[in-house]
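We treat protein structure as text, and this decision shapes the records that our systems exchange. Such a record has a labelled line for the sequence and another for the backbone structure tokens. The record that follows is passed on verbatim for readers who wish to inspect the format:
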Amino acid sequence: MAGFILIHGSWHGGWCFDLLAKELRARGHEVDAPTLPGMGGTKDELEAVTLDGWGQFAAGRCRAMREKVGGAPVILAGHSRGGLVISTAAEIDPQAMDGLVYICAMMLPAGMSRAEFKALEGPNLDFDAIIISVEDGAGTIVDPTRAGAVFAQASPPELVEQALPKLTIEPHGVRSTPVPVTPERWGSVPRIYIECTLDRTIPISSQRNMQALCPGAAVITLEADHSPYLSQPMALADALEAVLP
């Protein structure tokens, strides 16, 4: 038995983990899949979001989970942009969790931001084309008519159809914030990187570049798109359990 905290990626919410959470609970685990504060908010609410604030939020959910599960392991997992959040949470309070899991996620070295990594990697034309700036640049949204082909092309169509209307506004400022990680704190927490070979949002080449930039994570490979919680929920649950001591 373990406690899992699942942090969603850009434009999503805790709802995206519903199938995965159901499977983990069926296996006897506790699961917390919150929606990050500020998602879908007003211009002022979007501008108030910071990476540190999201990291504090995730670290707090880990501490609450530790109280709930007692001596059982607490695992903090992040999908896509959620990787920035779990890295920050581990730097803030490395004792709050027993393992980190990056699900085709942003795992960046100290001082690098999402925007800087994107600049290094170059354009992803299909992904870039679906992003729309809103609220005077304070947030972005994705075109739901084209997002399925980028986020979830290998997932069951009926699940994708249900998910797309739930996509919401993402605060824009976090992507330019450098990740504040150190070997002594973030680096002290065991890490697993779950790479997804069919990913069209963060291509497998980019995922492996991040693994090279941040050595030390064990790697599990899934033949999945950018939404493995839809396309491979059972295999993803297996991979999450692999981090357990």
Q: What stands out?
A: The first helix runs from residue 18 to 26. The first strand starts at residue 3 and ends at 7. The beta strands are 3-7, 30-32, 74-79, 99-103, 131-134, 139-142, 170-171, 191-196, 218-222. The chain has eleven helices and nine strands.
